[in-house]
C-alpha cells in the first residue's frame, strides 16, 4: 500500500512498472532524521524485492530536495557518528547502490550534504534550474559521507572534488551539468515530467543489462581486471531472455518487448 503524505517521512507512489519515492518533510527541507533514513531504506528494499518494479525516481516535497542530516534530531557533539553511519546511513546508501533497477534523482531545490550525495548516487540525476548541490560537511567540522568521497572524484575529478568538499560552496544546477556532475539541468516546471518520462522509458528496457552496466562502471578496476569483469557480465547478459528478445526484435524489424529480468 502506498504511503500517505500526512505525517509520513516519505511518500511512495506506484506508477505501473516504476515507483516514485518522495522525501516528505518539507518543513525541514526534507532533512534526514532516523525515521526518514529507515523509511527510505525500507522503500528501496521493497522496490528491489518487487519484480514488477523496473525503475525508481527519488525526489523531494516542497522547495528542496534534501538539506542533509537533521541537526536538530540527535546529531550532537560527543556522539559516535561512526556508529550512526554504520547502523543507519550506510545501509540506506548501500540499498540505493545495490538496487536491482535503474534509479533517477529529480532534484528540486537545494541538495546539501547527505542529500546531495543521496541524489548523486542515483544512476541518472536531473535537476531543476533553481537546484544546487552543496557538500556542506566542512561547515560543521565533518567530512563528506553517504558516498560523497567515492562519487565526487569520479564525477568531477579530484581537483574539483577536493575544492567542493573543503570550501562547501554551492554548485548551481547549470554548472553541475556543465561539469558532468549530473545528466541534465531543466526548467523547474519540466523536471518531474522529464523524470517520469525517463522512468517509464527505463522500465521498458532490459533491466538486468542496465544494472550490470552500472555495476561494471562502478568497479573501477585495472584494465585487465575490468575486461574480465566485462566478460563475466556479458556472459550473464547473453543468457538472459531480454538479449534473446532484443536479437529477435532486431531480426524481425519490430520494437523489442523486454520483460526485465533482474541482475
Task: Count up the domains.
Answer: 2
Helix share bin: 40-55%
CATH superfamily of the largest domain: 2-enoyl-CoA Hydratase, Chain A, domain 1
Main sheet properties: 6 strands, mixed
Q: Treating each run of at least 4 consecutive H or I residues as one helix, how many helices? A: 10
CATH domain topology of the largest domain: 2-enoyl-CoA Hydratase, Chain A, domain 1
Top-tier CATH class of the largest domain: Alpha Beta
Mean pLDDT: 95
Spans where pLDDT lies below 50 across 5 or more residues:
none
Main features:
2-enoyl-CoA Hydratase, Chain A, domain 1, 2 domains, six-stranded mixed β-sheet, globular
In short:
With 263 residues, the chain is an alpha/beta fold. It has ten helices and nine strands. The protein folds into two domains: 193 residues, Alpha-Beta Complex (2-enoyl-CoA Hydratase, Chain A, domain 1), CATH 3.90.226.10; 45 residues, no CATH class.
Structure, explained:
By secondary structure, this protein is an alpha/beta fold. The protein has two domains: 10-202, 2-enoyl-CoA Hydratase, Chain A, domain 1, CATH 3.90.226.10; 207-251, no CATH class. The chain has helices at residues 34-49, 81-97, 114-120, 148-156, 158-167, 173-179, 191-202, 207-219, 223-238, 241-251; strands at 10-15, 18-23, 56-60, 103-107, 110-112, 124-128, 132-134, 171-172, 184-186. The strands form two sheets. A six-stranded mixed β-sheet has the order 1-2-3-4-6-9, sandwiched between helices. The chain has a three-stranded mixed β-sheet with strand order 5-7-8. It is globular. The two termini are 26 Å apart. The model has no long low-confidence stretch (mean pLDDT 95).
Amino acid at each position: 500500500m502506498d504511503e500517505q503524505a500526512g505525517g509520513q517521512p516519505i511518500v511512495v507512489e506506484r506508477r505501473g512498472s516504476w515507483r516514485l519515492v518522495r522525501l516528505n518533510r518539507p518543513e525541514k527541507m526534507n532533512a534526514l532524521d532516523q525515521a526518514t533514513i529507515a523509511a527510505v531504506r525500507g522503500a528501496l528494499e521493497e522496490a528491489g524485492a518487487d519484480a514488477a518494479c523496473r525503475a525508481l525516481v527519488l525526489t523531494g516535497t516542497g522547495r528542496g530536495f534534501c538539506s542533509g542530516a537533521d541537526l536538530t534530531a540527535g546529531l550532537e557533539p560527543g556522539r559516535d557518528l561512526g556508529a550512526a553511519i554504520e547502523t543507519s546511513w550506510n545501509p540506506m546508501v548501500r540499498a540505493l547502490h545495490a538496487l536491482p533497477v535503474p534509479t533517477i534523482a529529480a532534484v528540486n531545490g537545494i541538495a546539501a550534504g547527505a542529500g546531495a550525495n543521496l541524489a548523486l548516487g542515483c544512476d541518472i540525476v536531473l535537476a531543476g534550474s533553481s537546484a544546487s548541490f552543496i557538500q556542506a560537511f566542512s561547515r560543521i567540522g565533518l567530512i563528506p559521507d553517504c558516498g560523497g568521497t567515492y562519487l565526487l572524484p569520479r564525477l568531477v575529478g579530484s581537483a574539483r572534488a577536493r575544492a567542493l568538499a573543503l570550501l562547501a560552496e554551492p554548485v548551481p544546477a547549470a554548472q553541475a551539468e556543465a561539469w558532468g556532475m549530473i545528466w541534465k539541468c531543466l526548467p523547474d516546471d519540466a523536471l518531474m515530467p522529464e523524470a517520469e518520462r525517463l522512468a517509464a522509458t527505463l522500465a521498458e528496457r532490459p533491466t538486468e543489462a542496465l544494472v550490470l552496466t552500472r555495476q561494471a562502471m562502478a568497479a573501477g578496476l585495472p584494465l585487465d581486471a575490468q575486461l574480465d569483469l566485462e566478460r563475466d557480465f556479458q556472459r550473464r547478459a547473453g543468457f538472459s531472455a531480454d538479449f534473446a528478445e532484443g536479437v529477435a526484435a532486431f531480426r524481425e524489424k519490430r520494437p523489442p518487448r523486454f520483460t526485465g529480468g533482474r541482475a
